[in-house]
Amino acid sequence: MFPRPIEKASPAWQYTYQGLLPLALIMWLLPLLAVAMFSMKPDADFTSGNYWTLPSYFAGFENYSTVFGTWQRTLDGCADNAWPLAFNNDAFCIFRFGWDYDGSDMVRYMFNSIMITIPTVIGVVALSSMTGFALGIYKFRSNLLIFFMFVAGNFVPFQILMVPVRDLTLDMGLYNTKTGLVLFHIAFQTGFATLFMRNFIRALPFELVEAARVEGIAEWRIYWFVVLPLLKPALAAMAVLIFTFIWNDFFWAVVLTQGAESQPVTAGITSFNAQYRAAYHLMSAGSIVAALPPVMMFFLMQKHFIAGLTLGAVK
Amino acid sequence: MSDVSGRITPRAQRGWYKRNEIALTPWLFLLPGVLFFAVYVVFPILQSFNISFYKWDGLGEAEYIGLKNYTDLMGDRNFEISLWNNLRWLILYLLAIPAGLMIALFLNQTVTGIRLYKSLFFFPFVISQVVVGLVFSWFYLPDSGLLDSFLQWLGFDGLNVLGNPNYATYGIIAAGLWPQTAYCMILYLTGLNAVDPEQVEAARLDGAKGWRMLWYVIIPQLKPATFIAFVVTIIGALRSFDLISIMTNGGPFGSTRVLSFYMFEKALSEYGFRMGYGAAIAVVLFLIMLLFIAYFLWSMYREERGR
Questions:
Q1: How close, in Å, is residue A286 to chain B by CA atoms?
Q2: Element at A85 (helix H, strand E)
Q3: Higher pLDDT, B8 or B101
Q4: Which domains are assigned to chain A?
Q5: In which compartments does the protein localize (chain B) (predicted)?
Q6: Residues of A with Cβ-Cβ distance to B293 under 8 angstroms
Q7: Is it the case that residue A82 has pLDDT exceeding 70?
Q8: Residue A115: enclosing H or E segment and its boundaries?
């Protein structure tokens, strides 16, 4: 092990190390801790210039409830609700159950982010498990070429796609809709996801497929019953990664959407910024809310997340 | 499975699909993915090349003007600034690699609670760049920001980092290095985990330690991690857009523009819809990226052949 394990060092150095750890962590996360503290300070602290003192009183609840707005049960607001989950005229609806909602647009942005991220993850998992299967199991002449097309496409700068993709989305009548954004994200992330799935499938024991073929099992059944069950850990790792990438996307949200009815939270927070200019307590509460879902995803699925990110870092 | 009939039917009598199943299946499985990817990624690249030869506002008729967009770029002072800033991003962003390695070495121990420390150190990477940008723009606030408060406490003058054309780009790069270092750290932590302990012990018996050990024994074994760190850092540097847009919006006086941001500004903002000119900038950025992409693919290709 390198560096030399700390247990073999002198006790003095061991204690120093134990003390250094939290100190280094606080330094490292200082900007974030500052924002967390901001979100608990009352507005008055900022107007009086006390940015970096402890909160004069704990205002966390009022700040976060301003961000989340007020909610009231309603029945008629969701009468014409076509989708299981929707925002209808400022009412949040689950089937016919609804809550009248009054407050900042932050909640709508969060809702949009969820409705963009989840379908994208499902779409990418579906497409890339298939492309990965095709490229990982079968040997045909253009295999490597198609694989490299996916890999290369995944690295291109977004700007080279921007004008045509925006045009295409406009032509399909999907500009400023969540669907337009979802379709593009699925297509683009399939590049990365194919790289991921194909390499994982390559590492599976090929004898399984051969044994299934000897049994005369149809190829699509091999996909569904033999390969797919083995892909579960890889799909989980990929799903959390894609979730984070899409949740955090800003560029495409700005290019393909505008306004609270379809913008995700990353783009929305900038309008929120304009709405609450220099209201640091609300902005920081909003930022923390916006950052929370990927952070929770990371902590819940840490093993998968890191396995996904470090794919290929070890031979 | 009950597909017994397939085995007893003579080969010639089976359906055409059944006879060619192994050759056809991959194409059927590839079809949806390749179709999506072609429509949204491959064709748009070609279209962008095409648009870059036109003068087009995105709505009306496009007018073919040949290479004029490119010759205009030559004389465009803002393009030049963007290009230089891209170079700054590329070079300085690479600092994330040694910084990530250092933190990984610091954390590669087995004391109690170290797992939690590792995840918390990784934290900045999980947060969206938009939030990172907001956080850092408060950190840099003139007078009231944490940085200025600290400088004033030390007795220095305050530093309006994002308001000063000479520092603003470096301020943004520093903000970008924060999550990028976290990413490189996690790559190296994984790499360090796989370092062969016998080689380390053998080197120790030969008297190697400290820097020499790191340089001659550890870093060569971390090569795959370094390669990936290099790839993601280069891509990240050339993709920088979110932070610039949030922290300075290209300013002050356009001094923090990079190609990706300048392209967006030209093609889609209050400065007018110059799609053709924007596409030309995108093509330049794409060609720069292509150098790296070609190198990455070549490395991958060699590895594929080596299997």
A1: 9
A2: strand A85-88
A3: B101
A4: 6-62 (no CATH), 70-102 (no CATH), 106-309 (1.10.3720.10)
A5: Cell membrane
A6: 152, 155-156
A7: no
A8: helix A106-137
